[in-house]
Amino acid sequence: MQGRYEEAYGYLFDAKSNISGEGRNNPFIMLRLGQCSYELGKEDATEYLMMAYMMEGKELFEDEDEKYFERIKDLIG
Q1: CA angle 18–15–36, rounded 5-degree value
Q2: Closest Cα partner for 46 from 73, 13, 12?
Q3: CA 42 to chain centre
Q4: Tens-digit pLDDT string for the chain (77 aa)
Q5: Which of 46, 60, 72, 77 is the 20 to 30 Å CA partner of 32?
Q6: Cα(33)–Cα(11) distance, rounded to whole angstroms?
Q7: Taking CA 33 as the corner, what is the angle to CA 4 and CA 7, rounded to the nearest 5 degrees?
Q8: Three-state secondary-structure class, residue 71
C-alpha cells in the first residue's frame, strides 16, 4: 500500500516460510506476497496469487486492483 514492495516482499517471504508452516496457509500473506512480486516483476507472482485464490476464492481480490486477478484469471478452470 505504501509502495515499499522490495521491503515488504522480504518480510512476507519470511512469513510464508516460517517454521510452523502456517504462513503458507494464510491467504492474506499469499495475496500480499503475490502483489509485491507482481510489482517487482518477479515470475513467482502468479504462483502466490493463485495460491491465495485457491484458499479464499475471488472474494479475496474484490477490494484489490483488478490487475492482480487478471494475472491469474486464465488459469482458473
Answers
A1: 145
A2: 73
A3: 12
A4: 577 899 999 999 888 877 566 667 899 999 999 999 999 999 999 999 999 999 999 999 999 999 999 999 999 97
A5: 77
A6: 9
A7: 30
A8: helix
- Cβ(32)–Cβ(8) under 8 Å? yes
Kindly report the pTM of this predicted structure: 0.88
Tracing cell 510452523 back to the chain, one arrives at 20
- Grid cell, residue 39, equals 510489482
Task: Sketch the domain layout of the chain as residue ranges.
Answer: 5-75
Taking each helix axis as running N to C, give the angle between helix 45-56 and helix 27-39, from 0 to 180 degrees, rounded to the nearest 10.
150
